[in-house]
Amino acid sequence: MSLEEKSAGGAASVEADDGGGGEESSAIAAGIRRDVKPWLNLVDDLSNLTRDAEISVPQICVMGDQSSGKSSVLEALAGVPFPRGSGLVTRCPIRLSMKRSATGSRWSAVAHASNEPSKSHSASTPGQLTKLLERLTDGLTSTSSNFSTETINVRLSSPDVPDLTVVDLPGIIRTSTAGQDPAVIAQVNNLIESFLEQARTIILCVIPANQDIATVDILERAQKVDPRGERTIGVLTKPDLIGPGNEDEVLAVLHNVRKPLQLGYVMVKNRSQAQLKAGLTGTEAREAEEAFFRQHSHFKGCDPKLFGVANLTTRLTQLLVTRIQHELVPMKADVETALASVRTELKGLSSYGNASTPGDRQKLLVTVTQEYVRHLNSVVQGEYRDRVIVVHPQLRLYTRALGVFDALKGKVEMTAPRFNDEDFVEQLASQMDALRGRELPGFMSAQSFYMFMAQYVEAWRDPARVAATEVRSLSLEVATKLLDVLVVQYPALREAVRSVAGVVMETAYESALEEVDDLLAKEKDPFTINDFLEQHINKLRYDRFEQAVQQSFEAVKPNHESWIGAKEEAGSFLRQWYRTTHGVNSFSNAEDMSAILEAYWLLAAKRFVDNVCMALDKKIMGAVAHKMQEECYKFVHDDAKLGRFFEEDAKLVLRKEELMEKRDRLSKANAAMANIQVRKSSTQQVRVTVTAGPMGLGLSLAEEGSRCVVKGFRPMPDGQPNPGQEAGVQLGDTLEQLDGVHLGSFQDAIERLKQRRGTVVLTLLRQKA
């Protein structure tokens, strides 16, 4: 959009259609319409194309209390009598997309509920559309006291409407009425909050002018989600109901002094119920509105841009276009992310071709089996480079099996006897005495060692069998899940291979249990040539001797007068210890046996855990892929089964069609944004002359990439016009030069603007629409 250089006295005036349904009292300039219409068309297209992709698009949402005049504002914009009354009149969101058609063209509208997009209903007059909206609303809500979160979408084409899209939401409910479900209060609040929280939504707060601004709930809600006020604009309605003496307070709000909003306020006067019944036309209503503000004793001296539906339309159009331009890149990223997700899911549903002949089905079975076995080998070997395994971490079989192996190790370690406890040694001495045979005094019984180890090894059986069961379950789970991922469209084939997997796993499990039993039998017959055993026995004996020496020092009384006395006492302790642990007696033999048992138990336990883990790896996981391939190939020559195997799931066929349709819509949305990005890629320089007022240029500036960008217009005192806005500065403009001198950083621009007084010439960078 191109603006010539202007002074504050000759500010750019961008006016809108009156939307009243008759002749225009003001019109958007043809050039402006040409520039903004592609952006408004884009957001409407995006709303339709991304409706189920959870991507929010810029939109104007009309919000306020019940009976605040929301529907009247829409009526003034569109020239369509919306339902009026007290209580919950708007019972579901209504999305109204208005398109200005060529002069002389016929009025037309099409509407449908969001839950039935294929069932569109046409209307050729505003009255027909009103009845259609009532019928669609009744269809979405069970009673007049209920409401729906489904949206009624209306596309309206007329020469007398602006190019604009707005969403009317149910009014905020304070208390439920007779016959109304109390839960509707929370439901309506949740619906309103869901729209408020969408960062791309422009919040149009409708406020009755005869209401205390401090009690307006919607302004408080908007402030919570939009604390900087970048997307909130206020509309004051019902100015004819302002009580005598309250005009000054209303003016303070209108002039953005009280309860200020960065985007300010506009006041409108819509047709009353009596005027509607009297048949007052839209054109007559706009003329009456203009006359009301022009003749009002308190309003006639104010800036005319603060009043009227025409000015409101202009403001809303500018705000929406600016919002669309600002959000274009993030929206494109969102659409591309959604598109990638759809393509990924669609690829999973369409990974194999159709098989219409027996030969095709045989080839397809071989292809599917090979792909399945290849992935099985990868997960068994712990190779996770394939995309399917990366996306589905639960398929990483070997990683999950390592958890089972670690658990087995811990359980076996927990079975270790308390070799160093005194009670254990005493019990061991008793058991050795009970097993004594022909051994001479001072000789230990090898039979006792073998019997004790057999007893300890038996405690490993249950942990090992549990580990085998868990590995079997994991392997079956992964084999089944892999089927679900790779052949999602063939339920009969999945079921057949799943049955095969169950049989293969059971056979492998039985083989693994036999291996576990064999390992237990071997460990019950102790053997090793590993020097770890003797080294560890020597270490244990030395540790016990070192402990005895330490205890002998601790036993020495601190009151000895000579070193000889202390030495004698320590020596006495050690001699007693030696007789106890190395004498020819039961306790001495038990002490020595305890060290030997502990050393061998550690060696055997480590060996057993390793051997069991390797057995489970080989017998269960390692055998799966090969056995599954053998069994699946047996189906190759069974034409009847192959025919059933490759019948696609009807639900998945439908899902694939839905995804293809969604992919096409998102691709169109992506292309639409790419196309308009190309057309808007260049910027233009715009020069405006601004005479600074008491509060400077009246601009709210923000830093974007070290540049100074116009984000809003500050309220002026006493209803004075904003100098920057009057001169033609627009939201989104970037300040490039001040009086012909280039501005540097954001901070530099702020400092230089503060120093200027009087009239300045701003050179702005503005995106071409």
UniProtKB/TrEMBL annotation:
Gene Ontology CC entries for this record: membrane; microtubule; mitochondrion
Any one of the GO BP annotations: intracellular distribution of mitochondria
Keyword Calcium attributed: no
Occurrences of domain Dynamin-type G (ranges): 54-330
Molecular function GO terms recorded: GTP binding; GTPase activity; microtubule binding
Residues covered by the PDZ domain: 687-768
Region Disordered, residue ranges: 1-25, 107-126
Biased composition (Polar residues): 115-126
SUPFAM superfamilies xref list: P-loop containing nucleoside triphosphate hydrolases, PDZ domain-like
Gene3D superfamilies with a match to the protein in the record: 2.30.42.10, Dynamin, middle domain, P-loop containing nucleotide triphosphate hydrolases
Source domain of life: Eukaryota
Residue ranges annotated for the GED domain, each copy included: 590-681
InterPro entries: Dynamin, Dynamin_GTPase, Dynamin_N, Dynamin_stalk, G_DYNAMIN_dom, GED, GED_dom, P-loop_NTPase
Sorted UniProt keywords: GTP-binding, Nucleotide-binding
Pfam families: Dynamin_M, Dynamin_N, GED
PROSITE patterns, per database record: G_DYNAMIN_2 (PS51718), GED (PS51388), PDZ (PS50106)
Protein name, as recorded: Mx2, Mx-like dynamin-related GTPase
Upper classification of the organism: Eukaryota, Sar, Stramenopiles, Ochrophyta, PX clade
